[in-house]
Amino acid sequence: MLSRRSLLRASTAALATPAILTGVAGRASATASTLSIDLQNNTGSNTVYAYVTGLAIDNGNAWYLLQADGQTPYYPSSPSSTGTPLAVDCAIPLSASGAGPKRITIPRIAGGRLWFSVDRKLTFLLNPGPALVEPSVTNSSDPNIDIQWDFCEFTFNSSVLYANVSAVDFAAMPIALKLTTGSGGTQSVPGLAAGGLDSICAGLTAQHAADGQGWDQLIVTSGGQNLRALSPTAGIVRNSWLFSGYYSSYVDQVWAKYASTPLYVDTQASWGTLTGTVSGGLLTFPGAGSFAKPSAADIFSCNSGPFNVSSAVMGALTARISAALNRSTLLSDANQPGGENPATYYTTSPTNHYARLVHATSTDGRGYAFPYDDVTPNGGTDQSGFVTAGDPTLLTVTLSAVHGGGGTTPPSGGSSAFSTIQASSYTSQSGTTTETTSDTGGGYDVGYIAGGDWLGYANIDFGSGGATQFIARVASGAASGVSGLVQVALDSPTATPVGSFSLGNTGGWQSWVTIPANISRVTGVHTVYLTFASGQPADFVNIHWFTFAA
Length: 550
What we know:
Layout: H1 9-12, H2 19-22, E1 34-42, E2 48-56, E3 62-66, E4 73-74, E5 84-85, E6 92-93, E7 102-107, E8 109-118, E9 125-127, E10 131-133, E11 148-156, E12 161-165, E13 170-171, E14 175-181, E15 186-189, H3 196-211, E16 219-222, E17 225-230, H4 232-238, H5 248-257, E18 263-266, E19 273-279, E20 282-285, E21 289-291, H6 296-301, H7 312-327, E22 335-336, H8 353-361, E23 386-389, E24 392-400, E25 415-416, E26 421-422, E27 428-430, E28 433-436, E29 444-449, E30 454-461, E31 467-476, E32 484-490, E33 499-503, E34 508-522, E35 525-533, E36 541-549
């Protein structure tokens, strides 16, 4: 298993963002010793199972699971051997897709998880202790490795319910939370849009095409469909070489800056704001401790190398420095957590593009994409996607479709803007010819393209979050002095382009390169036109495929 830091927030608040729980202080305690949870299946599948695991607070923090009836507790005893199956069935069948919710009841639990699987049951095992062996996305021999599953996290004690969506380890199923309180109020986290996994995977593919850093290695498929997108930390567990050296240049710049400029970190706790400077290769906060330069693996995990700390004050510093590194704001703001708008996160290269895509694909931009994604400035906008109250009465958890819908595949049968769109799949065109390509992936490209030609693609869905980048696979064997613009226009080939890039000779008509370009944010469903402009009449470009990214 990977990091589960967010599960025990009440005891680790000093390491993350105490301000998040400040609103709970002073509230009446949660009077009920149990909590009702409604599980709503909107996945499109009529076979969905739920599981509840955690530590039973009122039973000595013993391991707790909920049996298949959704009401009866199961406290496993210690088995005599490793890998022992559970003694009872803990797979809670949900209602058919679109039908009413399945209501379950839980006791007070710390470190809780609500697990969900589609079409097949999950396998949980026991080791002596007892210790619960949970599903893993990084162990290739795990019995659940090819199953579509996901989870959300919660802690429910005598003072508070705290629950959050989680993509710290991976992203897969869209899970939404709604909390109803005793005062009649509600809180909600919509989570990923339906079909959001496909959008994230398309974005990872596009990012790898743009920078060659292996983002596509985070995509796990099964049966020709996306199964999950791993976080960089999980990806590194599977492939230790992944992202090696990725943050090196950025960290070098950070260390150089704070050798002559103080770094101020507000611990948002009793230690106040601490000042750090770099000397002798260490970022040192007098009276607290020092940090050596972190690797990419350290930055993504937030708990290895120099971030493997034991004191509370160093934990508070680690949380805020790690968040700034993942969001790439440590160079631009010497006060952390910075007062910057979240729109500035992930805009400086290198950055955590997995986290960028999780947030871009989430309906309201919130989602736990790395272990300290709950770090915000005082009074800042929550990024982590949580609900919390001291008087909870009902938690509703809604599962949506993993593929299609929600801005990924329009009902009219069009295509997601974030998928790989083959150039030869045009619905209209002028002046071009399709030909066999020798590019990776094979198939056909569209060639013999000159200024004034265009290609049209109907029903391209950019969703509500929209796209700000256009990426195309192109080649050119144009003569010396011949070049042109590849442009993106919406709904008419004569519309003003929303973005473009220029292209000259790439070494031949089958010498392929991938080129990204910024575009004005595009949302909703459009007919996309690729239009071509050149000051010379000669052909200047072939195109194999294109896509868009947030």
